[in-house]
Write a structure and sequence with these properties.
The protein folds into 6 domains: 1-151, no CATH class; 195-258; 265-378, Calcium-transporting ATPase, cytoplasmic transduction domain A (Distorted Sandwich); 393-465 and 893-1005 and 1042-1138, Calcium-transporting ATPase, transmembrane domain (Up-down Bundle), CATH 1.20.1110; 478-491 and 699-764 and 793-892, Rossmann fold (3-Layer(aba) Sandwich), CATH 3.40.50; 499-566 and 574-697, Calcium-transporting ATPase, cytoplasmic domain N. Helix 9 (206-220) packs antiparallel against helix 10 (224-257), helix 31 packs antiparallel against helix 35 and helix 32 runs antiparallel to helix 34. The longest helix has 38 residues, at 888-925. By secondary structure, the protein is an alpha+beta fold. Helix content is 40%, strand content 18%.
Length: 1219
């Protein structure tokens, strides 16, 4: 019973999806709420602040657990490693508020769609349902499934038959009203955040709260100048943050506001056409597409066809043809029926309809699939509003460091309490002084100082036309060690140039027709295929479409005309466009061609086909083009030349883009039958026509950039949708794969009835024809290859199909391949994202650079995604380059490394600054003394404030180093750096503190003030001391005079200057310190000022700084001690701690190795004499001869761990918001 109660209390939301959440049910208790209210009043609002930072504590304090069905509050928790909480109220909706009577009979469904969750969510006879709103999406409680389910979409379980017959005539007006109430408005609303709300969020940050407490305490003690400076700086920082957030909010609001103002026409069952606002659309509505139109929802086309611009989704502003969902009577879900090609029927929200083609049944119609934030555009906007969290060690380490400093402050607090209570100081003064020491260890300038490095880097990136919507990722770029590139449009030019055609006849390849010769392409089936098999459209007299299609069509020298020309003389059917021979075309017996039906290209199917009619003929033709390997499968074997693989390889090895074409005659009784043809019927038993060869040139920037990354030991990987052999050739031509390296082709096959899944390893031959080059192949599997060289002399290449098989059936083998996998071809958009994620599981910091066409998912998945497209789809990419080549990649990595090193330097400096002051203040507390206000002021403003704001402005070093900077604060060199500097500071300050007491001229000023003042020969008469003789000597806060403070102040101040210099290391990640002119000038000025104050004998300076005069030799001793400390610290930092060779030697001697998964695999494989395998086949799950079993599928206990690894990504917020 208790077990069932626990199950009822908890459920999963979006199970198996990236945004999976745990949801827990709670019921509010009024007694608990009253207690929380009283406690909040008694703590002066501190409890409310705590509840604001920890919403789950608020729920636990004021509510009791209950079954989700009875809950009025739900607590949501992310299933990643960070387990962030959200609190949401359960909203109760009542259908009795509708203007028409609703049946209360439980047997009668509310909506005609029997798949709909609405029927299961509404309780009868109460006519109520419960719902929650999470990240803009509404979920209703399903009483049958006993969990929250998403609404605002049609269920995927619908078959093609269901969609046509359940929704084909439209919804009744009553059902529309029910759906509007339950699903909410079809609107993507991004409110412009009010300034007061943004300001409140910023101010209530835990660190700002601590800062406010610190500054209040300092102001109460008269430390006004520095407090005011910090307040001004914090206000500027908050104002800039609020302004930036407000601008982003306004920009996003403008991006979506037009979406909610579209007038649409729908078909209402029994009433006909009705015009309404797009925000009133519901899933299941029938949308009529009039012509040019911006889609306000996701819809599936059921009648007619249309051409849309999907630039918002794909980043490519090219027309895409959409075809209607077929009329089939099977019960298979409609998406499964169309396999991966279901997108050809779907019109996505935010895309533009630019042309419609009605069918004989009537206008173009579509069924609304998804509304609001469930749509494609809504999902894009949500990804910006709620970015996918990413883990970066710096922020979690920095948080731990701050907690440590705060703990040190607490130790100081109790130390001060003990000292002052021992001396009998009043409780008020004791508490004040103890709190002052508590605040010394955590510098209040920390947030502003750590942000400056990122701000400087962002400004430098903007100068190079690289724009960033997620500044915290700049630091992550400094850790990138693997860079993925798309090929077409990224490594190679966008456009393709026609090179030639290779026609076939009698099962043999014929003479190549070279377009460079200037001769027109001769008429024949190949020419007919090139003129008709494409997705080009005629828009306002201009031919528009895919660049490949455009180049292919232009090569035929035929022209397009719109359908208002007189087609009667051709005896052709009605069509949007007519294709005719142009003036420069070769002589043709055919006067015109019209395309009757089109099956659009799909990257997953790798082909497209059309049904066309030639003028004067009473039968039809099927023309098809696509990837040669795919096309050969659909052609009759006797029509495919025997030397087809060799011919294909001949061109792909030269880096050409190769397209195959095919044809068949189609004899039908009527033209109307064409529209009902299935793709399977059309794309079968074809005749192979030949190959179209296109040239895809490398961009001139590609080779030098890849060389620079290779020299920096940053792995480069190609992920493309193109042919595998073409990708290998491009990789070799660009020197992504060095000429002397071997390529091993990995081909994996799905399991069949009697055969397990297989993976075959084949060595790709070296195609160099120069003397001596053809013998460069080496036996990679031979153990004679030096272990140190094995990792760099072979590269794996595979297709998307093989990758999918490896992922499912050779899961334990996949990491071994990925550590040396360089070419991934024929990859679908989903596979690209999956591959990036698999690389991340191996602990690579992955960058992805693409033109946005099919890379959006991978760009968002990577640690640093760089889009070379300015389309709306790239908005969710962290970085966008206005320069459409990969030169932006090394610039971004350099700036990331510089920003990361700057962040470490600033953090180390501020830690040391806090520790220097903490040690000095603690020593003075021992005898109830304190540094003077102006002594603190010089250190805090003249040095620390100015240094912190300029230390990070040093530019990135122009050359990428062959190694990365440290990625975490809690690493031995960094910890040792801080620890040793603290030790040096501690030794020097304690020695000075004790040694000054041994001097013959020393006296305890506050005890013997009258004697001391009478014997001063300089300007002692102007020095005022206050005394409080109550048995024990007590220091009034205004009395700061002592030889100890006069001695310690120059030591601590010069120490602050020297550590700033020591921690501002230049090469190899930043330019030398002297190139940062402002910072260098400030350091020299601060040092000069300190030395001047130390050696000056001006009365006004001594009075203002609250110093006591000392002999010159003592001052020289102080300066000597500071110089000695600097020399020791600089030597230790530069010669030991920053000595990379020394640390590598130590690691080697003591057997320390990187814990990164990819390093572990590299080490194992280097020691394995049988790796890499060549010219062999392995089987999955074969106990006798097989080597690899998919542990992820075999062992259920491993799944949660893998799931945890997938979620091992954290928030990009500043680390202090983790509180």
């Amino acid at each position: 019973m208790e077990e069932k109660s626990k199950q009822d209390h908890r459920a999963l939301l979006n199970q198996g999806e990236e945004n999976e959440l745990e949801v827990f049910g709670y019921q509010t208790q009024n007694v608990r709420r009253v207690f929380c209210l009283i406690a909040s009043v008694l703590t002066c609002g501190a409890l409310l602040l705590l509840f604001y930072w920890r919403p789950h504590w608020r729920v636990w304090a004021s509510c009791i657990p209950c079954p989700l069905q009875e809950a009025d509050i739900v607590l949501l928790r992310t299933t990643d490693e960070f387990q962030r909480y959200m609190r949401k109220k359960v909203i109760c909706l009542s259908l009795s508020t509708l203007k028409f009577p609703v049946s209360k009979n439980p047997e009668e469904p509310l909506v005609a769609d029997h798949h709909s969750v609405i029927n299961q969510a509404v309780l009868k006879p109460e006519l109520k349902l419960q719902c929650i709103q999470v990240q803009k999406v509404r979920y209703v409680w399903d009483n049958l499934e006993r969990r929250f389910q998403k609404v605002g979409l049609l269920e995927d379980s619908h078959s093609c038959y269901d969609i046509h017959h359940t929704f084909g005539l439209g919804l009744t007006s009553e059902e529309q009203e029910v759906r509007r109430l339950v699903c909410g408005p079809n609107a993507i609303e991004v409110e412009i955040q009010p300034i007061w709300k943004l300001l409140t969020k910023q101010v209530l940050n835990p660190f700002y709260m601590f800062q406010a407490f610190t500054l209040t305490l300092w102001l109460s003690q008269g430390y006004i100048e520095y407090s005011v400076a910090i307040i001004i700086l914090s206000v500027i920082s908050i104002v800039l943050s609020v302004y930036d957030l407000r601008q982003q909010s306004v920009k996003l609001h403008k991006l979506v506001e037009d979406h909610n103002k579209v007038q649409v026409t729908v078909i209402v069952k029994g009433k006909g056409l009705q015009e309404l606002e797009s925000r009133l659309l519901v899933p299941g509505d029938i949308l009529v597409l009039p012509g040019k139109f911006s889609l306000p929802c996701d819809a599936v086309l059921i009648d007619g066809s249309c051409v849309v611009n999907e630039g918002m989704l794909t980043g490519e502003s090219i027309p895409v043809t959409k075809t209607p969902l077929p009329h089939t009577e099977n019960t298979m879900p409609w998406k499964s029926h169309s396999l991966e090609d279901y997108r050809k029927h779907v019109l996505f929200c935010g895309t533009e309809v630019i042309q419609v083609k009605p069918s004989v049944q009537g206008p173009v119609r579509a069924v609304v699939l998804q509304t609001g934030y469930n749509t494609a555009k809504g999902d894009l906007v949500r990804s910006i509003l709620y970015p996918r969290p990413l883990n970066f060690k710096l922020y979690s380490d920095a948080f731990k460091f701050i907690v440590f400093l705060a703990c040190l402050g607490v130790v100081g607090f109790f130390y001060a309490l003990g000292v002052y209570m021992y001396h009998g100081v009043s409780p008020r003064d004791t508490a004040t002084m103890a709190l002052l020491l508590l605040t010394v260890s955590v510098p209040p300038i920390l947030p502003a100082a750590l942000t400056t490095g990122i701000v400087h880097a962002q400004k430098r990136l903007m100068k190079r036309k690289i724009f960033c919507i997620s500044p915290q990722r700049i630091n992550m770029c400094g850790q990138i060690n693997l860079m993925c590139f798309d090929k077409t449009g990224t490594l190679t030019e966008d456009g393709l140039d026609l090179w030639g055609t290779v026609p076939t006849a009698d099962n043999c390849f014929q003479e190549v027709h070279n377009f460079a010769s200037g001769r027109a392409l001769p008429w024949g089936p190949l020419c007919a295929a090139m003129t008709s098999c494409h997705s080009l459209i005629l828009l306002d007299g201009t031919i528009q479409g895919d660049l490949l299609d455009l180049k292919m069509f232009e090569g035929t020298a035929w022209i397009m005309e719109d359908r208002n020309v007189d087609r009667c003389k051709f005896g052709m059917s009605d069509s949007n466009i007519v294709i005719k021979p142009g003036p420069k075309a070769s002589q043709s017996p055919v006067e015109a061609i019209t395309v009757l039906c089109q099956f659009p290209f799909s990257s997953s199917l790798q082909r497209m086909s059309v049904v066309a009619q030639l003028a004067g003929e009473d039968y039809f033709h099927v023309y098809m083009k696509g990837a040669p390997e795919m096309m050969a499968k659909f052609c009759r074997a006797e029509t495919v030349p025997e030397n087809f693989p060799q011919e294909l390889k001949k061109y792909t090895m030269q880096g050409f883009r190769v397209i195959a074409l095919a044809h068949k005659d189609l004899r039908l009784g009527k033209i109307s039958e064409v529209q009902s043809l299935s793709r399977e019927t059309v794309e079968s038993e074809l005749t192979f026509l030949g190959l179209l060869i296109m040239e895809n040139r490398l961009k001139k920037e590609t080779k030098p950039v890849l060389k620079e990354l290779n020299e920096a030991r940053i792995r480069t990987v190609m992920i493309t949708g193109d042919n595998l052999q073409t990708a290998i050739t491009v990789a070799k031509n660009s020197e992504m794969i060095p000429r002397e390296s071997q390529v091993i082709l990995v081909e994996a096959s799905e399991p069949e009835e009697s055969v397990s899944a297989t993976v075959t390893w084949q060595l790709v031959e070296n195609q160099e024809n120069e003397p001596g080059k053809n013998e460069t192949c080496i036996n990679i599997g031979n153990s004679s290859v030096p272990a140190g060289e094995k990792g760099c002399c072979y590269h794996f290449a595979m297709s998307g199909k093989s990758y999918q098989v490896l992922l499912q059936h050779f899961n334990s083998l996949l990491p071994k391949i990925l550590v040396n996998g360089t070419i991934f071809a024929r990859m679908s958009p989903g596979q690209k994202s999956s591959l990036v994620e698999e690389f991340q599981k191996l602990n690579y910091y992955v960058g992805m650079c693409g033109d946005g066409a099919n890379d959006c998912g991978a760009l968002k998945m990577a640690h640093a995604g760089i889009s070379l497209s300015e389309q709306e789809a790239s908005v969710a990419s962290p970085f966008t380059s206005k320069t459409a080549n990969i030169e932006c990649v090394p610039h971004l990595i350099k700036e990331g490394r510089a920003a990361l090193v700057s962040s470490f330097g600033v953090f180390k400096y501020l830690t040391m600054y806090g520790m220097i002051q903490f040690i000095g203040t603690s020593l003075l507390y021992w005898q109830l003394q304190l540094f003077g206000n102006y002594q603190y002021l010089v250190q805090d403003i003249a040095i620390t404030l100015t240094v912190c704001l300029t230390m990070s402005s040093t530019h990135a070093y122009p050359k990428l180093a062959p190694y990365r900077p440290a990625g975490q604060l809690l690493s031995p060199p960094l910890l040792l750096s801080v620890f040793l500097n603290v030790c040096f500071t501690c030794i020097v300050q304690i020695c000075a503190f004790l040694y000054v007491k041994q001097q013959p001229w020393y006296c305890e000023v506050y005890k013997y003030s009258e004697c001391f003042l009478n014997n001063q020969s300089n300007f002692s008469t102007n020095v005022s001391l206050e005394r409080n003789w109550t048995g024990n000597a007590t220091l009034i806060p205004a009395s700061m005079l002592s030889f100890e403070s006069t001695t310690l102040w120059p030591i601590t101040t010069i120490n602050c200057i020297t550590v700033a210099f020591i921690f501002s290391k230049g090469k190899p990640f930043r330019k030398p310190i002297y190139t940062n002119y402002i910072f260098s000038l400030l350091l020299i000025s601060a040092l000069g000022l300190t030395v001047f104050i130390l050696f000056s004998d001006f009365e006004d300076i001594y009075r203002g700084m609250e110093f006591l005069p000392t002999i010159t030799s003592w001052r020289v001793s102080i300066l000597g001690a500071c110089f000695t400390q600097f020399c020791v610290a600089f030597f230790v930092e530069d010669a030991v701690l920053q000595n990379r060779e020394l640390w590598l030697l130590i690691k080697k001697e003591f057997g320390f190795y990187s814990k990164s998964q990819y390093r572990t695999w590299q080490k194992k494989l280097a020691e394995d004499p049988t790796w890499p395998p060549t010219n062999r086949t392995d089987y999955s799950g074969d106990g006798k001869s097989g080597f690899y079993i998919n542990q992820g599928y075999e062992n259920s206990e491993q799944l949660p761990r893998e799931k945890l690894e997938r979620g091992r990504q954290t928030t990009e917020e500043h680390f202090w918001t983790i509180l």
